[in-house]
């Protein structure tokens, strides 16, 4: 059941000759080479040659063009990266190769994302919805998912202001108007405070700015907040208080990570690799280090 | 620009009579009442009566049935909750009411999610993709999003095993075969260890099981890991080490939260409410509490 979860995110294999029945597993970023001798390949079998494949594909409800909708979601950050359509053959190919493959309605043909840009999408898990007409490819993309070069395809936002007027913002690919979950939005807010440090400011600096400018204060706060989180358990202060203290600890820790140029995505990748191989437990069970 | 972000998640307003031009903002869970006197209402204007609305709706690329795809994503957890389609009127209604509204292809009509089940979806932000034919409603759903009663519509997984055989799993709505980001998957793993504590075990218990069984050890580890994270900054140990220590701190903290029955979703909600109103900074800037 683990086959779609490519080990440690790398898709290694023996190079094979390039034919239409083979798919290149290009792991290098920004390469436009699809079928180079250096690119490892995986053979794609016909649907009927893979036991269970037809049975699964038969359960899906294709539209009159033979397509289902596909959502590509980032396994670590939860970002929705792109949305496209797939036919039976594209789904079969995705399952076999672990590379996100679609049916292009504009080009009328099967399309392995990345085959021209090098920005392949490693699919770790594949899900079907209740109506069997929409799939999720839970993925670890190589480079930007959008053909414009943007990280995700959604970078334009519409909103209604207090004056009951609709605004559309973020027409550019490097827009901040992308769907961000709470964690990613907090990370961006911290980065905005960091960027603002370079600007002359008036009035009292924000708390985040103070933390960013004072590593000693920041470390003191991180240790304090960890203590307060522990105290919620030790003193039985209740779940609401625990959630609040965890929020404090997470926020202060993320300020500390920002100072070191580390993104939560990297932290999530570490966790995925650890607990994907029971590594969290392995690592955590090692004898304690000498700590202050 | 804040209008779509309903303040603190509540959709309060003055009750109005129930007509086809009004939408009920039902916030109570599991109620099937749509237009009760107690349910606050918001007026929905015609598209042309909302400045900027037609201009935005004109930028979208509708299919020959006049529809675009819509993905509903959970603002706190990043979960993809459901996927449906919307016409111009449904998008206009969503922008104005802040409630996820679609066009039902099976019923050939506009459909405000929750109008029969009570499981409305509060839409905080609305995004369009690069091709202008797919939207994301970044949302805070009330109750399950799926018509089956499942939390999300994706609860069935297809995977290829080492023997090159496709398996389909999770036919039931309470399946564990749902797309989970790394953070949610870790949370589930911890819960599985917790559940297993009630079972007789053979051999050495897992590290997570040991932590769950020994709050004193757990709190000691949380404090230690916070110290080690700080040390990466204090001693300039580098970003890779910082990511690794943050992973440790996050994992141990999540075990501590599990013991108190607290989910990361709740922590994210606290953070969203705080930093959505600059509350993170307000809270954090208060004079320090007496801590141990």
Automatic annotation (TrEMBL), chains A, B:
Listed InterPro entries: His_synth_HisIE, HisE, PRib-ATP_PPHydrolase-like, PRib_AMP_CycHydrolase_dom, PRib_AMP_CycHydrolase_sf
Biological processes per GO annotation: L-histidine biosynthetic process
Catalysed reactions, semicolon-separated: 1-(5-phospho-beta-D-ribosyl)-ATP + H2O = 1-(5-phospho-beta-D-ribosyl)-5'-AMP + diphosphate + H(+); 1-(5-phospho-beta-D-ribosyl)-5'-AMP + H2O = 1-(5-phospho-beta-D-ribosyl)-5-[(5-phospho-beta-D-ribosylamino)methylideneamino]imidazole-4-carboxamide
Listed pathway(s): Amino-acid biosynthesis; L-histidine biosynthesis; L-histidine from 5-phospho-alpha-D-ribose 1-diphosphate: step 3/9; Amino-acid biosynthesis; L-histidine biosynthesis; L-histidine from 5-phospho-alpha-D-ribose 1-diphosphate: step 2/9
Pfam families for the chain: PRA-CH, PRA-PH
Occurrences of domain Phosphoribosyl-AMP cyclohydrolase (ranges): 82-155
Keywords: Amino-acid biosynthesis, ATP-binding, Histidine biosynthesis, Hydrolase, Multifunctional enzyme, Nucleotide-binding
GO molecular function, one term: ATP binding
Keyword ATP-binding: yes
Family annotation (PANTHER family): HISTIDINE BIOSYNTHESIS BIFUNCTIONAL PROTEIN, HISTIDINE BIOSYNTHESIS BIFUNCTIONAL PROTEIN HIS7
Similarity comment: family membership: In the C-terminal section; belongs to the PRA-PH family.
Protein name according to UniProt: Phosphoribosyl-AMP cyclohydrolase domain-containing protein
Organism of provenance: Chlamydomonas leiostraca
